[in-house]
Design a protein that fits this description.
With about 400 residues, the protein is α/β, with parallel strands linked by helices. The chain contains 17 helices and twelve strands. The strands form two sheets. A nine-stranded mixed beta sheet has the order 7-8-6-5-4-3-2-1-9, with helices on both faces. Strands 10-11-12 form a three-stranded antiparallel beta sheet. Helix 1 runs parallel beside helix 2 (about 70-85) and helix 12 runs antiparallel to helix 17.
Length: about 400
């Protein structure tokens, strides 16, 4: 096996469960840190044995809240990964972190362990909004953590959520202007989505969430792109903005449909044409690793149509769109065969796809990305010369 590989490590534990979160995160009173370190290393070695010949392009500690793990655990994983895979100097190694004072106090140790990029979950610059979002920090703690992060890490990003209950376009404009004044190289600005199984979903069904309308949400999205670009942070993915060269290399590996290995509870992976999934419940994953040396729940071949749909879903999120040559290398199928010219011409006539050989959404198209994917995937399923 050859080519680039990204490595994702999932730490599933959080201090609290946010009401909008449907990620695989869990609150536990006690965590056996040595057992978890040993299990992560064992799961890592299992993936390494199956991806020999590939070059590591990034390591990403996600969650959950991986900044709750001991820095020694992060260092053990990083050291082992660098021993198991070849990589270039300056490998991007990202830690997702909550901006609490307890976790910020560990930033120096995480930097010493090898973390060189941090993604900070600020989410809002307003105490009332933070409380509504169920965040375990207030604004003062968040800003203090950002200051500490900027002193210890060469690369810093943070997240904000817009289209929150009760939020107006004017309020988001003021909040975003403040955020852009912090001078970070990267900003992720996500529209609040109501996911099934979350407390927000229950409240929304009962009519207890005063969410902005579709037009207001679209205005916030467009305003975000304009203001970020004016500040030198260009849109490179539907929710992500960065200074040139500061894009997340790890996430670009996903969005360009590259291989990635996922370890830890509930972690997904894509490697060598296989979709991998780890056991979701932390205790079940831990028991499986102890019993057989890995936490895999399933490992399935990806059919050509499924691969094409996944590549469309990921690639259309990118501002630069999908390159035909790269798409064919990743999926084994020509882009013209997957995205029929008739469907593309129709979407171009509506101003949703840009003309040209690449498959790229326009600014209007990015507002309805799901529609683009549905239209193209429908054409794909209805024929388009696809093999079974």
């Amino acid at each position: 096996m050859s080519g680039d590989l990204a490595l994702y490590i999932h730490w599933p534990f959080c201090v609290t469960k946010c009401p909008y979160c449907d990620f695989n995160s869990h609150v536990r009173d006690r965590v056996d840190q040595q057992a978890w370190r040993d299990a992560l290393l064992a799961d890592l070695r299992h993936e390494a044995a199956l991806t020999q010949g590939q070059r590591l392009v990034s390591i990403f500690f996600g969650g959950g809240t991986p900044s709750l793990m001991p820095p020694e655990t992060a260092q053990a994983v990083i050291d082992e990964a660098l021993r198991l895979w070849p990589s270039e100097p300056g490998l991007e190694i990202t830690l997702e972190a909550n901006p609490s004072s307890v976790e910020a106090a560990r930033f120096a140790d995480f930097a010493a362990a090898g973390i060189n990029r941090v993604s900070l979950g600020l989410q809002a610059l307003d105490d009332a909004a933070l409380k509504l979002l169920g965040r375990p920090h207030d604004l003062a703690q968040g800003l203090a953590a950002l200051d500490v992060a900027q002193r210890h890490f060469g690369r810093v990003s943070f997240d904000l959520i817009h289209s929150r209950p009760g939020q107006t376009v004017a309020a988001w404009e003021a909040e975003l202007a403040r955020a852009l004044g912090f001078g970070t190289e990267h900003l992720s600005a996500y529209q609040l989505t109501i996911e099934e199984g979350t407390r927000f979903h229950t409240l929304a069904r009962k009519g207890l969430l005063d969410l902005p309308g579709e037009e207001e949400a679209a205005d916030m999205f467009e305003l975000t792109g304009e203001m970020c670009a004016a500040a030198g942070l260009l849109l490179y993915e539907i929710s992500n903005h960065a200074r040139p060269g500061a894009e997340s290399r790890h996430n670009l590996q996903y969005w360009t449909y590259g291989d990635y290995a996922g370890i830890g509870p509930g972690a997904h992976g894509r490697r060598g044409g296989l979709a991998t999934l780890r056991l979701r419940r932390p205790e079940s994953w831990l028991e499986a690793v102890a019993a057989k040396g890995n936490g895999l729940e399933s490992e399935d071949a990806i059919a050509p149509q499924a691969a094409a749909e996944e590549a469309l879903l990921m690639g259309l999120r990118l501002a630069r769109g999908i390159d035909p040559a790269a798409f064919e290398v990743r999926t084994g199928l020509p882009l013209d065969r997957v995205a029929p010219q008739a469907a593309r011409a129709r979407l171009q006539s509506l101003g949703l796809l840009a003309p040209g050989t690449s498959l790229r959404a326009t600014e209007a198209g990015r507002l309805v990305t799901n529609r683009l994917i549905l239209e193209l995937a429908t054409g794909l399923k209805q024929g388009a010369g696809m093999p079974s």
